[in-house]
Specification:
8 strands; alpha/beta; 2 domains; Rossmann fold
Length: 359
């Protein structure tokens, strides 16, 4: 859905110029959490920090981050178990008397930190505990609403500190979903090119090239993505950061979000809680690539090799629901033109879902 009706973000002064904000410090590797104080010193962010985390991720990494910062900074903690306008406003109130924000957790925690950071004009550091999607580095945040997910402009992290030991220890399903989210860049770029030809939508060739290259590298190296392997965690996290940077360059999520994402958001409405965002994006990518006339079987093979689902059945979702999601996709963010906006019929949608099971 469009974010135009979401009155959540602080209104910024009108400015004809466009600022491109990218992470200044990116630290990825084994046991890198102890480098957080050095990162804060390098960035000269101030003397007090708000740590935004979830209950489980606070136990996993947030408490350690707080202990590492306590010697040099005054810290407070805000627990965000979910993401909603109410939680975001509570987070903004908690950020009133601090200089910067540290988001420690998964996608919802990081997105909450992004929006709080944007609305309070404070920088934030992203400390992901899983590599499940490219939101760890992007300037966009996803907010669930009664009508689906809204993609909001938000604050990109000024730094990213990603401990591959923590990320590798997370369930492999999360890493596989992150891989699928990156691979979906392939069809997001094709949809962007289509919108440029059909609708005259402006393109950023640099952002497109970076996004496509990131997806290509991951597909070519799908065989090295293994469960609970730090090298795999490092590889995927680096790719997620690169994908997020492409969005910051473009000034929108276009380099990584096309029809496959619209399908994913529709599926979340119809079968809430069944699939991770990246998982349904991966299935949507297979379908979109087929419609674009590309190597959909190669995409499917890469997803299978990584361990990501390639059919609705693997997610415990009825094929009929997937068909309905394909037909609903055109109503999700209708301002974003994609291959799924070209007039699918129920018969063609059913054929596309059956195609997923073909050998």
């Amino acid at each position: 859905m469009s974010a135009d009706r979401i009155k959540l973000l602080k209104q910024k002064p009108f400015d004809k110029s466009r600022w491109m904000q990218l992470p200044r410090d990116v630290v990825i590797g084994h046991d890198v959490l102890p480098q957080i104080p050095a990162v804060c010193q390098d960035l000269q962010l101030g003397t007090s920090a708000l740590i935004i985390s979830g209950k489980s991720t606070m136990d996993l990494a947030g408490e350690r981050v707080r202990n590492l910062l306590n010697d040099q900074y005054t810290t407070t903690v805000f627990t965000a178990e979910t993401i909603s306008p109410a939680v975001i406003r509570e987070g903004e109130a908690a950020a009133d008397n601090v200089d910067f924000i540290v988001g420690v957790g998964g996608g919802r925690v990081i997105d909450t930190a992004k929006i709080v950071s944007y609305n309070t004009d404070r920088q934030f550091i992203s400390v992901p505990t899983a590599a499940s999607h490219d939101g760890i580095a992007s300037a966009r945040a996803s907010l669930p609403t009664m009508e689906g997910h809204a993609s909001l402009e938000a604050q990109p992290p000024i730094a990213i500190v990603a401990d591959t030991g923590i990320i590798a220890a997370a369930p492999h399903r999360l890493l596989a979903a992150g891989c699928a989210d990156i691979i979906s860049n392939y069809t997001a770029i094709l949809d962007w090119e289509l919108a440029h030809r059909v609708k005259g939508e402006p393109m950023s060739e640099y952002a497109m090239a970076l996004s496509k290259m990131t997806a290509e590298i991951l597909v070519k190296n799908a065989h090295v993505i293994k469960p609970h392997n730090e090298q795999s965690a490092w590889f995927v996290t680096k790719a997620l950061v690169s994908s997020g940077v492409a969005m910051s360059i473009a000034g929108s999520s276009r380099p990584g979000s096309g029809g496959e994402h619209k399908f994913s958001h529709a599926l979340e409405q119809l079968a809430p809680g069944k699939a991770l965002h990246g998982e349904s994006c991966g299935i949507g990518t297979i379908i979109s690539m087929y419609l674009h006339g590309g190597d959909w079987k190669g995409i499917r093979a890469s997803l299978k090799m990584i361990g990501a689902p390639t059919t609705p059945a693997e997610l415990g979702i009825d094929d009929g629901i997937a068909v309905e999601a394909l037909l609903m996709a055109k109503n999700i963010r209708p301002e974003r033109f994609t291959i799924l906006d070209m007039g699918l019929t129920k018969e063609s949608a059913e054929k596309l879902v059956r195609m997923l099971y073909q050998e």
